[in-house]
Amino acid sequence: MNNTDTFVHFLVESGALKFGNFITKSGRETPYFINTGEFRTGASLSKLAEFYAAAFMVHFDGKAQNLYGPAYKGIPLCAATAMKLSDLYALNLTFTYNRKEVKDHGEGGSLVGYKYAEKTNVVIIEDVITAGTSVNETMQALSQIENANVVGLLISVDRKEKLENGKSALQTVQDEYGIEAHSIVNINDIIAFLENEDNRKAINAPEGILDRVYAYREKWGAV
Question: Is the peptide bond preceding residue 72 cis, with omega within 30 degrees of 0?
């Protein structure tokens, strides 16, 4: 398997990528669903962070000094990725995450970790993007923080679904905020994985799943 196939297989094996019948937050009926909350062991989170770290090195090496993980799923992702960047690439980045509710005692505030004492280039670490709502909220929050200069977004899977503007959420984020936005894999990589019969057998894919994913991509896929 190539690198993207390896990651897709890992997602399925970990239970993070499922095929069947699901309803997305936007109300769309989808034949596949991604939930990185399924990474619930040290081994699986460690492996996932390796993929994130490798993708960071490809797209953001030398461009950022900080990883930001939006609560809640982004918190373990940014911390684990920072660890792997240190362990595997000797890259010692700071990391930051937010609280859902501002703390009014102790050190106070909404941020935990690095507090942007000086101008810092930031890469947001998220799990999946569909409509981009969470990213918009994060960008608005970080825009209020002095010295936090967001330069990029890194996610695990880009569903590449079109919004009202006809573009994908990832493309819209790039256009609206002028940052780089990358995914480890996208729906086209998942389709390429499913097109291989051996891969479908290896994951015990449901009968007819490839045609259903084709149809969904045709209906909702961005250009």
Answer: yes
